[in-house]
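CORE FACILITY INTAKE
Project code: CF-77B
Contact: R.S. (postdoc)
Sample description: multi-component assembly, two entities in total
Requested service: structural model of the whole complex
Turnaround: standard
Below are the sequence entries exactly as provided by the requester. Do not edit them.
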Amino acid sequence: MNNKQISSFLSKVLTFAIKEWNHILRDRRSFLLTLIFPAFIVVFLGYAVTLDVNRVRIAVLDEDGVAGRQLEKKLEGSTTFEVVQVPNLPEGIELLKEGHVQAILQVPRAFSKNLFFTGKSIISLIVDGSDNNAARIIMGYLADFAGKGFYAVRHSPPRKTTVKYLFNPALDTRLFFVPGIIAIFIFMMAVAMTALSIVREKEQGTFENILVTPVRPIHILTGKVIPYLLIGFVNFFTGILCAYLFFGFHVYGSWVAIAIIALLFVACGVCLGMLLSTLTKSSLVAWLLSFILTFLPSVILSDFVFPTRSMPGVITAVSWLVPTKYFMHLLRDISMKGAPLDQLLHYVLPLMGFTFIFMLVATRRMKRAHAW
Amino acid sequence: MARSDITIRAEGLTKRFGNLVAVDDVSFTVRQGEVFGLLGPNGAGKSTTIRMLCGILKPTAGYAEIAGINVVKTPEQVKRTIGYMSQRFGLYDDLTVRENILFYARLYIGNWKKAAERANEVMEKLELHSYANTTAGQLSGGWRQRLALACAITHKPPVLFLDEPTAGVDPLSRRMFWDILYDMAAEGVTLFVTTHYMEEAERCDTIGFLWHGKLAALGSPEKIKKTSIPAGVYTIKGVSPAEVVNTLKGLPFVAETSQYGSEVHVITNIPEDVTHKIREQLMAMGLNQARVAPSVPSIEDVFMYISHEKANNIKQNE
């Protein structure tokens, strides 16, 4: 390409980019919503999406009278539990059934005596298993508590296992989920906005007018990509900023690496949007396609919550076709573990591959649709 | 006529969509500065023909040439030579008049300063200046039509294709629009217009009538009116048109009857004068007040006749 061809290419691409900006800016309300949306999603869902158990109401049935009171004090001192005293087991079960408490801790008669003399004693824990995730966590907490709780009673210190959690020391599940939420939403928005912007032109008949001008599909696609790439990129950092302000999200790795993968991921979404736009002429269908193809796979098959590794083999294989999965790992590894980008090429390269393939197929399909 | 005069040439242009033959072996030429009207009912293949000539739809067979450029071989080269105004106007409703024009100007003209100058020029020419900052969606039909035209001529194309440019526009705006088109033709621009308004056909230098993808008539409106109907056309006035139609329909010498307000036009299929026969038939039905007179066919009569003949031929062939 010589200079003249390059300037002609740029002129056409920029013409489309500017026109697209004009569309976006004209609809001011939608534009503001687009900018605020990720912040809203992160803050709102960030508070909602957590597997941590807080303010668990627990019934304590103290038949021992000594150790029980001690345990109770400990429990009350934590923010995790709210203690309710029950005089007997049936009453405790009743509370459990009604959902007033999620667990009953029964300290049997002669508990401290046995402990003191034999070093062994049994307490029983009855947990509401209908919410099995919460049940498992409560069990974990209480077992931990019970172990430490009688340190003072037993005169010799118990053997302790020291567990140190690397990368997310407080094991705050929000720090795990919030980047995932950001990933899911910027991807969906990038896909949908791009797909719609092209399909709308087909619907309005403006697309045909463009085809009669001396432009090529590559001009149209490249020009349309620019604004949505920019919006997606800004949205991503809005989300990250909110995660930092509200949930103390911290990037241990390189910000440059984060920016690079974010740009790549948004580009991937935008290219997928272009590809989808070649499949339909209706906005409604474009919307549905964008939603179905991005949202559900991003939530279910991206290791966002559900570990794909423990899924049946076929599904695990399919999950490697979900771009969000690569980004999810990249984002967590860079921000939480501080991993350098060159060690994450096995995630970066496939994402680049997807982007390239989407772009290629989209241009091909567009060319073929208007092939001479 | 010198060969270089010919701006648009179509030879055996054909487009098939699966089993459907949308355009069937269509040939014609258009001279420079001529206003060519392609007429025909909806679905006759008008838009398909235009789209093939504009280089956005590949013909199944045939040859097309615009200003010496082979459209079939080099469709991209044609695009700089032509302007295209589509049926649906193809405007961006949320963009202003200036933004719409500037968008097209920039696509054609790489130099943005020149593009802006040209956009102003076009706005001035089509008197769109006072609407420069109005969004296209707020414009009325007539102004939208002008804006669509403005977008199509930013690069001063020597050939302009207009696909039903007057659809859904009020008569006054339509007339003004045609005045603009005549001005352009006078400046040497070749205009290729499709329409289904028959009165607009009379405004063209040459018309082609498409019927089921075939070019059923071609020539100046005068020539077509004189030569296309081998038989006679009669006008009947003074009595209830509905009753006249009922009486005459189905008579062996009547090819077509159509009602125009209080008149009925009758097209016959024999060359002899049948004024008396018609009068007798009407009298027999008690329509004594009827005034029957031979008349010059209108373009609409011609097209009604052609459609009728073609339909009959198809029936006979089956």
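Facility notes:
- Chain A touches chain B through 24 residues (CB under 8 Å).
- Strands of chain A lie at 56-62, 81-85, 103-107, 124-127.
Invoice: internal transfer
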